[in-house]
Write a structure and sequence with these properties.
Shape: globular
Distance between the termini: 22 Å
Largest sheet: 5 strands, antiparallel
Number of strands: 5
Structural class: alpha+beta
Strand order of the largest sheet: 3-2-1-4-5
Oligomer: single chain
Order of helices and strands: EEEHEEHHHHHHHH
Strand content: 15-25%
Length: about 200
Amino acid sequence: MFDYIKGELVFKGDNSISVENNGIGYSILTNPRTILSLCDIGLEVKIYTKLIHKEDSMTLVGFKQKEDRVIFDILTSVSGIGTKVALVLLDEFSGSELIDYVINQDYKSISRAKGVGLKLAQKIVLELKDKLTNKNTSREIIQGKFENKNISSEIIEDVQTILKSLGYNNNEIQKGIEFAITSANSKTSEEILKEALSMLSNV
């Protein structure tokens, strides 16, 4: 219903904010990590939103970066994970950290988040790994784009696959990977993904 809301930040709570736009104040549920990343009260802010509609309530959930909203949607597709737990996970870990843990099947690190035990962490890894690493994606970006960049096509394909699963289009993926190759401290898929997401978050 709402892609994002841009307006004046008028309130910051422990787990929620209020944004005023055209005389309407929107109460938005979020997490401390997001709140800490926002501007001061009284300044303009842009928040990507997700409307959670239940039988007895409607809740607007907010994210500073659009890929966090995508990861939120992916997390809540796991049985047993609702809005609260997904926000806790995105508070404890960045999006790229969560993706790394899932791909590397590091459920012990995921279980560090408050309220997430080993069994739920294992379920997250089990249900999400295939979604994030589905190879049924277009290879047109790989072919000829990154030759002579001193980086393997396998790493490029891994990063492209994950970015595709997060909803980025081919043009965005190409720009993100090109930026990451020049700025990453190492040429691992984890580092390339982290830098690509960082760049795409600010587009």
